[in-house]
Amino acid sequence: MPDPLPPLRTVRAGLRRATEALAAELARPGGVTPDWSPLEWRLAMAAAAAHGVSPLLDRSPGWQHADWRHFLASQREHVEQRHQRIVDLLCRLDATARDAGVALVPLKGAALHALGLYAPGERPMADIDLLVHPGDARRAASLLHELGYEASFAQWKHQVFKPACAAPVHALGEHRDTPVNIELHTHIHERLPLATVELSAMVYPHDAQPGLNAYPSHAALMGHLLLHAAGNVCGRSLRLLHLNDISLLATRLTRRDWNVLCDVLAGGSSWWALPPLCLVARYYRHAVPDAVLARLEQECPPLLRTLSRRWTLSAVSCSDLWLHGLAGIEWCRSPGEAMHYLHNRLRPTDEARRERADMVRTQLWLQGQSWVTSPQRRRVLAWLTRPVPRMDTLYVVRAALAQASTP
Protein backbone atom coordinates (compact mmCIF):
# COMPACT_ATOMS: atom_id res chain seq x y z
CA MET A 1 0.00 0.00 0.00
CA PRO A 2 1.35 3.49 -0.83
CA ASP A 3 2.08 5.80 2.07
CA PRO A 4 -0.83 8.12 2.88
CA LEU A 5 -0.54 11.67 1.60
CA PRO A 6 -0.13 14.54 4.06
CA PRO A 7 -3.14 16.86 4.33
CA LEU A 8 -3.74 18.31 0.87
CA ARG A 9 -3.75 21.89 2.15
CA THR A 10 -0.26 21.26 3.54
CA VAL A 11 0.82 19.82 0.18
CA ARG A 12 -0.65 22.80 -1.69
CA ALA A 13 1.07 25.36 0.54
CA GLY A 14 4.38 23.49 0.31
CA LEU A 15 4.23 23.24 -3.48
CA ARG A 16 3.48 26.93 -3.90
CA ARG A 17 6.26 27.94 -1.49
CA ALA A 18 8.76 25.61 -3.21
CA THR A 19 7.79 26.78 -6.69
CA GLU A 20 8.38 30.45 -5.91
CA ALA A 21 11.70 29.60 -4.25
CA LEU A 22 12.78 27.52 -7.27
CA ALA A 23 11.86 30.31 -9.67
CA ALA A 24 13.92 32.82 -7.68
CA GLU A 25 16.90 30.44 -7.46
CA LEU A 26 16.87 29.60 -11.17
CA ALA A 27 16.69 33.25 -12.21
CA ARG A 28 19.23 34.45 -9.63
CA PRO A 29 21.36 31.51 -8.39
CA GLY A 30 23.17 31.61 -5.08
CA GLY A 31 20.35 32.04 -2.62
CA VAL A 32 20.52 30.81 0.95
CA THR A 33 19.63 27.15 1.41
CA PRO A 34 16.04 26.99 2.71
CA ASP A 35 15.48 25.66 6.21
CA TRP A 36 12.87 23.14 5.13
CA SER A 37 11.48 19.99 6.71
CA PRO A 38 11.97 16.60 4.99
CA LEU A 39 8.42 16.89 3.60
CA GLU A 40 9.13 20.35 2.18
CA TRP A 41 12.28 19.11 0.44
CA ARG A 42 10.29 16.28 -1.13
CA LEU A 43 7.67 18.75 -2.32
CA ALA A 44 10.48 20.86 -3.78
CA MET A 45 11.63 17.80 -5.73
CA ALA A 46 8.06 17.28 -6.95
CA ALA A 47 7.82 20.93 -8.03
CA ALA A 48 11.21 20.85 -9.78
CA ALA A 49 10.22 17.70 -11.67
CA ALA A 50 6.80 19.04 -12.62
CA HIS A 51 8.32 22.30 -13.88
CA GLY A 52 11.10 20.57 -15.82
CA VAL A 53 13.97 22.45 -14.16
CA SER A 54 15.75 19.81 -12.05
CA PRO A 55 18.79 19.48 -14.36
CA LEU A 56 19.05 23.26 -14.78
CA LEU A 57 19.28 23.69 -11.02
CA ASP A 58 22.25 21.30 -10.98
CA ARG A 59 24.42 23.71 -12.98
CA SER A 60 25.66 25.72 -10.01
CA PRO A 61 26.47 24.90 -6.36
CA GLY A 62 23.03 26.12 -5.32
CA TRP A 63 21.27 24.85 -2.23
CA GLN A 64 23.34 22.53 -0.08
CA HIS A 65 21.15 19.64 0.96
CA ALA A 66 22.37 16.06 0.41
CA ASP A 67 19.15 14.48 -0.89
CA TRP A 68 18.40 17.54 -3.01
CA ARG A 69 21.85 17.54 -4.65
CA HIS A 70 21.62 13.81 -5.33
CA PHE A 71 18.21 14.23 -6.93
CA LEU A 72 19.37 17.07 -9.20
CA ALA A 73 22.52 15.23 -10.28
CA SER A 74 20.52 12.11 -11.07
CA GLN A 75 18.01 14.11 -13.12
CA ARG A 76 20.78 15.78 -15.11
CA GLU A 77 22.35 12.39 -15.87
CA HIS A 78 19.04 10.97 -17.09
CA VAL A 79 18.34 14.03 -19.26
CA GLU A 80 21.83 13.98 -20.77
CA GLN A 81 21.53 10.33 -21.75
CA ARG A 82 18.03 10.82 -23.14
CA HIS A 83 19.22 13.91 -25.03
CA GLN A 84 21.67 11.78 -27.00
CA ARG A 85 18.83 9.49 -28.03
CA ILE A 86 16.87 12.53 -29.21
CA VAL A 87 19.87 13.89 -31.18
CA ASP A 88 20.31 10.52 -32.89
CA LEU A 89 16.61 10.42 -33.74
CA LEU A 90 16.71 13.95 -35.18
CA CYS A 91 19.62 12.92 -37.40
CA ARG A 92 17.64 9.95 -38.67
CA LEU A 93 14.61 12.19 -39.22
CA ASP A 94 16.71 14.63 -41.22
CA ALA A 95 18.15 11.93 -43.49
CA THR A 96 14.81 10.17 -44.00
CA ALA A 97 12.97 13.45 -44.68
CA ARG A 98 15.59 14.49 -47.24
CA ASP A 99 15.18 11.19 -49.08
CA ALA A 100 11.39 11.53 -48.97
CA GLY A 101 11.44 15.19 -50.07
CA VAL A 102 9.58 16.33 -46.94
CA ALA A 103 10.40 19.57 -45.13
CA LEU A 104 10.13 19.50 -41.32
CA VAL A 105 10.70 22.15 -38.68
CA PRO A 106 11.80 20.91 -35.22
CA LEU A 107 10.02 23.10 -32.70
CA LYS A 108 10.64 24.61 -29.25
CA GLY A 109 13.15 22.54 -27.26
CA ALA A 110 14.95 21.09 -30.30
CA ALA A 111 15.31 24.59 -31.78
CA LEU A 112 16.60 26.05 -28.49
CA HIS A 113 19.23 23.31 -28.29
CA ALA A 114 20.22 23.93 -31.92
CA LEU A 115 20.87 27.60 -31.05
CA GLY A 116 23.16 26.55 -28.20
CA LEU A 117 20.99 28.10 -25.51
CA TYR A 118 21.11 24.83 -23.59
CA ALA A 119 23.90 22.29 -23.18
CA PRO A 120 23.11 18.56 -23.36
CA GLY A 121 21.59 17.48 -20.07
CA GLU A 122 20.27 20.90 -19.07
CA ARG A 123 16.82 20.99 -20.67
CA PRO A 124 14.46 17.99 -20.68
CA MET A 125 12.42 17.29 -23.79
CA ALA A 126 9.26 15.28 -23.24
CA ASP A 127 8.97 14.64 -26.97
CA ILE A 128 9.96 15.97 -30.38
CA ASP A 129 7.58 18.50 -31.95
CA LEU A 130 7.68 18.77 -35.74
CA LEU A 131 5.90 21.21 -38.05
CA VAL A 132 5.07 20.02 -41.55
CA HIS A 133 3.19 21.69 -44.39
CA PRO A 134 -0.42 20.40 -44.43
CA GLY A 135 0.09 19.06 -47.94
CA ASP A 136 2.96 16.87 -46.72
CA ALA A 137 1.26 15.54 -43.58
CA ARG A 138 0.55 12.07 -45.01
CA ARG A 139 4.07 11.66 -46.31
CA ALA A 140 5.43 12.80 -42.96
CA ALA A 141 3.31 10.20 -41.18
CA SER A 142 4.60 7.51 -43.54
CA LEU A 143 8.13 8.68 -42.85
CA LEU A 144 7.56 8.23 -39.10
CA HIS A 145 6.19 4.74 -39.69
CA GLU A 146 9.43 3.91 -41.53
CA LEU A 147 11.32 4.95 -38.41
CA GLY A 148 9.36 2.53 -36.24
CA TYR A 149 6.63 4.88 -34.99
CA GLU A 150 2.90 4.30 -34.86
CA ALA A 151 -0.01 6.73 -34.50
CA SER A 152 -1.16 6.97 -30.89
CA PHE A 153 -3.91 9.59 -31.03
CA ALA A 154 -4.83 12.83 -32.74
CA GLN A 155 -6.04 16.13 -31.28
CA TRP A 156 -6.94 19.39 -32.89
CA LYS A 157 -3.39 20.70 -32.33
CA HIS A 158 -1.34 17.75 -33.47
CA GLN A 159 -1.05 14.03 -34.10
CA VAL A 160 0.98 11.99 -31.62
CA PHE A 161 3.23 9.12 -32.68
CA LYS A 162 4.94 6.74 -30.29
CA PRO A 163 7.64 4.10 -30.78
CA ALA A 164 6.06 0.74 -31.53
CA CYS A 165 6.00 -1.58 -28.49
CA ALA A 166 7.40 1.14 -26.22
CA ALA A 167 6.38 1.06 -22.57
CA PRO A 168 6.02 4.13 -20.34
CA VAL A 169 8.36 4.49 -17.37
CA HIS A 170 7.10 5.19 -13.85
CA ALA A 171 9.59 7.64 -12.36
CA LEU A 172 9.88 10.98 -10.60
CA GLY A 173 10.78 13.51 -13.26
CA GLU A 174 13.01 12.48 -16.15
CA HIS A 175 14.21 8.97 -16.97
CA ARG A 176 16.65 7.87 -19.64
CA ASP A 177 14.37 5.06 -20.82
CA THR A 178 11.22 7.14 -21.28
CA PRO A 179 10.02 6.66 -24.89
CA VAL A 180 10.59 9.63 -27.20
CA ASN A 181 7.22 10.45 -28.70
CA ILE A 182 6.79 12.68 -31.75
CA GLU A 183 4.07 15.29 -32.11
CA LEU A 184 3.36 16.19 -35.72
CA HIS A 185 1.85 19.64 -36.29
CA THR A 186 0.42 21.07 -39.50
CA HIS A 187 -0.39 24.41 -37.84
CA ILE A 188 0.95 26.49 -34.97
CA HIS A 189 -2.14 27.59 -33.06
CA GLU A 190 -3.71 27.76 -29.62
CA ARG A 191 -7.24 28.18 -28.29
CA LEU A 192 -7.36 30.92 -25.65
CA PRO A 193 -9.71 29.44 -24.48
CA LEU A 194 -12.04 29.51 -27.52
CA ALA A 195 -10.52 32.11 -29.83
CA THR A 196 -7.90 30.44 -32.02
CA VAL A 197 -4.62 32.32 -32.42
CA GLU A 198 -2.49 31.05 -35.31
CA LEU A 199 1.17 31.76 -36.11
CA SER A 200 1.76 29.14 -38.81
CA ALA A 201 2.71 31.67 -41.47
CA MET A 202 5.24 33.25 -39.12
CA VAL A 203 6.84 29.96 -38.07
CA TYR A 204 6.97 27.91 -41.29
CA PRO A 205 9.95 28.93 -43.49
CA HIS A 206 9.05 30.34 -46.89
CA ASP A 207 12.04 28.56 -48.45
CA ALA A 208 11.78 25.27 -46.56
CA GLN A 209 13.95 22.49 -47.98
CA PRO A 210 13.59 18.70 -47.62
CA GLY A 211 14.92 17.61 -44.25
CA LEU A 212 15.02 19.54 -40.99
CA ASN A 213 14.67 23.32 -41.18
CA ALA A 214 15.23 26.05 -38.60
CA TYR A 215 12.69 28.73 -37.68
CA PRO A 216 12.83 31.66 -40.13
CA SER A 217 14.08 33.99 -37.36
CA HIS A 218 14.58 34.43 -33.63
CA ALA A 219 11.40 36.52 -33.67
CA ALA A 220 9.44 33.57 -35.11
CA LEU A 221 10.76 31.24 -32.42
CA MET A 222 9.92 33.80 -29.73
CA GLY A 223 6.41 34.20 -31.10
CA HIS A 224 5.87 30.44 -30.90
CA LEU A 225 7.29 30.20 -27.37
CA LEU A 226 5.01 33.04 -26.24
CA LEU A 227 1.92 31.50 -27.84
CA HIS A 228 2.70 28.10 -26.29
CA ALA A 229 3.21 29.71 -22.89
CA ALA A 230 -0.02 31.71 -23.27
CA GLY A 231 -1.92 28.49 -23.91
CA ASN A 232 -0.46 27.00 -20.76
CA VAL A 233 -1.24 30.08 -18.67
CA CYS A 234 -4.81 29.90 -19.96
CA GLY A 235 -5.04 26.25 -18.90
CA ARG A 236 -3.19 26.76 -15.58
CA SER A 237 -0.38 24.48 -16.79
CA LEU A 238 2.54 26.88 -17.20
CA ARG A 239 5.98 25.50 -16.32
CA LEU A 240 9.02 27.33 -15.03
CA LEU A 241 10.89 25.83 -17.97
CA HIS A 242 8.66 27.83 -20.34
CA LEU A 243 9.67 31.08 -18.65
CA ASN A 244 13.33 30.10 -18.68
CA ASP A 245 13.15 29.32 -22.42
CA ILE A 246 11.74 32.76 -23.15
CA SER A 247 14.24 34.55 -20.91
CA LEU A 248 17.20 32.82 -22.59
CA LEU A 249 15.97 33.51 -26.11
CA ALA A 250 15.35 37.13 -25.11
CA THR A 251 19.11 37.51 -24.70
CA ARG A 252 19.50 36.80 -28.43
CA LEU A 253 16.83 39.23 -29.58
CA THR A 254 17.94 42.62 -30.82
CA ARG A 255 15.74 45.71 -30.75
CA ARG A 256 14.97 45.01 -34.38
CA ASP A 257 13.88 41.45 -33.52
CA TRP A 258 11.49 42.74 -30.84
CA ASN A 259 10.11 45.29 -33.31
CA VAL A 260 9.62 42.60 -35.95
CA LEU A 261 7.80 40.42 -33.43
CA CYS A 262 5.54 43.24 -32.27
CA ASP A 263 4.87 44.34 -35.85
CA VAL A 264 3.84 40.82 -36.90
CA LEU A 265 1.53 40.61 -33.89
CA ALA A 266 0.19 44.14 -34.32
CA GLY A 267 -3.31 45.16 -35.33
CA GLY A 268 -5.22 43.63 -32.45
CA SER A 269 -3.75 40.14 -32.77
CA SER A 270 -1.21 40.45 -29.94
CA TRP A 271 -3.74 40.67 -27.09
CA TRP A 272 -2.58 37.28 -25.74
CA ALA A 273 1.18 37.96 -25.61
CA LEU A 274 1.26 40.15 -22.50
CA PRO A 275 0.53 37.52 -19.77
CA PRO A 276 3.51 35.23 -20.50
CA LEU A 277 5.87 38.19 -20.90
CA CYS A 278 4.67 39.71 -17.62
CA LEU A 279 5.45 36.42 -15.88
CA VAL A 280 8.90 36.31 -17.45
CA ALA A 281 9.55 39.88 -16.34
CA ARG A 282 8.42 39.05 -12.79
CA TYR A 283 11.17 36.46 -12.31
CA TYR A 284 13.81 37.40 -14.90
CA ARG A 285 14.46 41.07 -14.37
CA HIS A 286 15.46 43.07 -17.45
CA ALA A 287 14.75 40.10 -19.78
CA VAL A 288 11.86 41.90 -21.49
CA PRO A 289 12.22 45.52 -22.68
CA ASP A 290 9.81 47.89 -20.95
CA ALA A 291 8.86 49.30 -24.35
CA VAL A 292 7.66 45.87 -25.49
CA LEU A 293 5.49 45.43 -22.39
CA ALA A 294 4.05 48.93 -22.80
CA ARG A 295 3.22 48.28 -26.45
CA LEU A 296 1.50 44.95 -25.73
CA GLU A 297 -0.49 46.42 -22.84
CA GLN A 298 -2.33 48.64 -25.29
CA GLU A 299 -3.95 45.65 -27.01
CA CYS A 300 -4.54 43.39 -24.00
CA PRO A 301 -8.14 43.36 -22.66
CA PRO A 302 -8.46 45.26 -19.34
CA LEU A 303 -9.22 42.26 -17.10
CA LEU A 304 -6.47 40.11 -18.59
CA ARG A 305 -4.05 43.04 -18.41
CA THR A 306 -4.81 43.56 -14.72
CA LEU A 307 -4.46 39.87 -13.88
CA SER A 308 -1.23 39.63 -15.84
CA ARG A 309 0.38 42.09 -13.45
CA ARG A 310 -0.69 40.02 -10.42
CA TRP A 311 -0.18 36.41 -11.50
CA THR A 312 2.62 34.33 -10.02
CA LEU A 313 3.99 31.12 -11.46
CA SER A 314 2.45 29.03 -8.69
CA ALA A 315 -0.98 30.55 -9.40
CA VAL A 316 -1.05 29.58 -13.10
CA SER A 317 0.69 26.21 -12.96
CA CYS A 318 0.22 22.74 -11.55
CA SER A 319 1.79 24.02 -8.32
CA ASP A 320 -1.65 25.28 -7.38
CA LEU A 321 -2.97 21.90 -6.32
CA TRP A 322 -6.66 22.71 -6.72
CA LEU A 323 -8.24 22.08 -10.09
CA HIS A 324 -9.76 25.22 -11.64
CA GLY A 325 -13.15 24.36 -13.05
CA LEU A 326 -13.29 27.61 -15.06
CA ALA A 327 -9.61 27.91 -15.93
CA GLY A 328 -9.19 30.37 -18.77
CA ILE A 329 -12.50 32.20 -18.54
CA GLU A 330 -10.64 35.44 -17.84
CA TRP A 331 -9.19 35.18 -21.36
CA CYS A 332 -12.67 35.54 -22.92
CA ARG A 333 -12.93 38.92 -24.62
CA SER A 334 -16.70 39.34 -24.68
CA PRO A 335 -19.79 38.27 -22.70
CA GLY A 336 -20.83 36.10 -25.64
CA GLU A 337 -17.51 34.28 -25.66
CA ALA A 338 -17.75 33.76 -21.89
CA MET A 339 -21.23 32.28 -22.24
CA HIS A 340 -20.01 29.97 -25.01
CA TYR A 341 -17.14 28.90 -22.75
CA LEU A 342 -19.52 28.14 -19.86
CA HIS A 343 -21.77 26.14 -22.17
CA ASN A 344 -18.81 24.02 -23.28
CA ARG A 345 -17.80 23.40 -19.67
CA LEU A 346 -21.27 22.19 -18.79
CA ARG A 347 -21.78 20.27 -22.02
CA PRO A 348 -18.41 19.26 -23.48
CA THR A 349 -18.22 18.90 -27.24
CA ASP A 350 -17.68 15.51 -28.86
CA GLU A 351 -14.14 16.62 -29.65
CA ALA A 352 -13.47 17.40 -25.98
CA ARG A 353 -14.85 14.01 -24.94
CA ARG A 354 -12.58 12.24 -27.42
CA GLU A 355 -9.57 14.18 -26.18
CA ARG A 356 -10.34 13.24 -22.59
CA ALA A 357 -10.67 9.58 -23.55
CA ASP A 358 -7.32 9.71 -25.37
CA MET A 359 -5.68 11.30 -22.33
CA VAL A 360 -7.08 8.66 -19.98
CA ARG A 361 -5.80 5.94 -22.30
CA THR A 362 -2.27 7.32 -22.82
CA GLN A 363 -1.25 9.33 -19.72
CA LEU A 364 0.22 7.49 -16.73
CA TRP A 365 -1.02 10.04 -14.23
CA LEU A 366 -4.64 9.43 -15.25
CA GLN A 367 -4.52 5.65 -15.07
CA GLY A 368 -7.06 4.27 -12.60
CA GLN A 369 -8.42 7.71 -11.64
CA SER A 370 -12.20 7.61 -11.40
CA TRP A 371 -12.43 11.42 -11.40
CA VAL A 372 -11.58 11.81 -15.08
CA THR A 373 -14.09 9.19 -16.19
CA SER A 374 -16.95 10.53 -14.07
CA PRO A 375 -19.91 12.20 -15.83
CA GLN A 376 -19.43 15.91 -16.40
CA ARG A 377 -22.30 16.80 -14.06
CA ARG A 378 -20.51 15.07 -11.16
CA ARG A 379 -17.29 16.91 -11.87
CA VAL A 380 -19.11 20.24 -12.03
CA LEU A 381 -20.85 19.51 -8.72
CA ALA A 382 -17.50 18.68 -7.13
CA TRP A 383 -15.93 21.95 -8.37
CA LEU A 384 -18.80 23.87 -6.83
CA THR A 385 -18.78 22.15 -3.43
CA ARG A 386 -15.17 21.33 -2.53
CA PRO A 387 -11.56 21.74 -3.61
CA VAL A 388 -10.63 19.08 -6.16
CA PRO A 389 -6.93 18.18 -6.47
CA ARG A 390 -5.21 17.95 -9.84
CA MET A 391 -4.37 14.39 -10.85
CA ASP A 392 -1.11 15.37 -12.60
CA THR A 393 0.14 17.15 -9.50
CA LEU A 394 -0.84 14.35 -7.14
CA TYR A 395 0.98 11.88 -9.38
CA VAL A 396 4.31 13.69 -9.09
CA VAL A 397 3.82 14.37 -5.36
CA ARG A 398 3.20 10.69 -4.72
CA ALA A 399 6.29 9.81 -6.76
CA ALA A 400 8.40 12.21 -4.68
CA LEU A 401 7.08 10.85 -1.38
CA ALA A 402 7.54 7.24 -2.55
CA GLN A 403 11.14 8.01 -3.37
CA ALA A 404 11.58 9.33 0.15
CA SER A 405 10.34 6.06 1.64
CA THR A 406 12.58 3.87 -0.56
CA PRO A 407 15.56 2.48 1.38
UniProtKB/TrEMBL annotation:
Pfam families: NTP_transf_5. One of its GO terms (molecular function) is transferase activity. Keywords: Transferase. This is Uncharacterized nucleotidyltransferase. InterPro entries: NTP_transf_5.
